Amino acid sequence: MGLHIVLFEPEIPQNTGNIARTCAALNAQLHLVHPLGFLLSEKHIRRAGLDYWHLLTIHQYPSIDSFLLEHEKDELWFFTTKGEKAYTEAVYSATTYLIFGKESAGIQQAILSRYRSNCLRIPIRNEARSLNLANAVAVGAFEYERQQNFQQLRI
Questions:
Q1: Under a CB-based contact definition with an 8 Å cutoff, are residues 143 and 150 in contact?
Q2: pLDDT 10s per residue in the chain (155 long)?
Q3: Between the CA of residue 78 and those of 60, 87, 91, 96, 116, what are the distances in Å?
Q4: 112 and 119 in contact (C-beta within 8 Å)?
Q5: Interatomic CA distance for residues 4 and 47, integer angstroms
Q6: pTM of the full predicted structure?
Q7: Which domains does the chain have, with CATH numbers?
C-alpha cells in the first residue's frame, strides 16, 4: 500500500539523497533500479538524506526489466517530458508507483511507448528542458498525497 517512488538508473547521489529524504518524510517506499551512478555508502547521498535513513524502506533491482516484470500488475506512472497528459490528470490509487528516469536521458523510449497511456509530464515553459530529478519527484509525490487527502501526514 501507499506511495512508491521508483528511480531508473539514477546517476547523481545528491539527487537520490534528497529523494530519499522526501520519501522518508512522506512514508513512501524508494525503489532503486541498477545500475546506479554511485554507491549507496557515498557521503553525498548520506548527507543529502540527513538523518532520515532509518525512516526509509529501500528496494533494489538489478535492472529495469526485473523491476517491470515484478510490478507488471501494479499501477505504474512514468514521469517524462514526452508525456501527453499533465501529472494532475492522473487519478492515483491507494497503491501507486511513480517512476522517474535517470538524470541524463530520462526513461527509455521503448518503455514510454509500451506504457504510453501512463506517461505524465510536469508542465514547464518550452525553453526549459526539464526539472531537476529531486524536484520532479517532490512535485509528483505531493500530488499523490494531495489526492489521498494527506491521510498519513500531519497537516
A1: no
A2: 899 999 999 999 989 999 999 999 999 999 999 999 988 776 767 676 567 888 899 999 999 999 999 999 999 999 999 999 999 999 999 999 999 999 999 999 999 999 999 999 999 999 998 999 999 999 999 999 999 999 877 77
A3: 18, 9, 13, 11, 9
A4: yes
A5: 22
A6: 0.94
A7: 2-147 (3.40.1280.10)
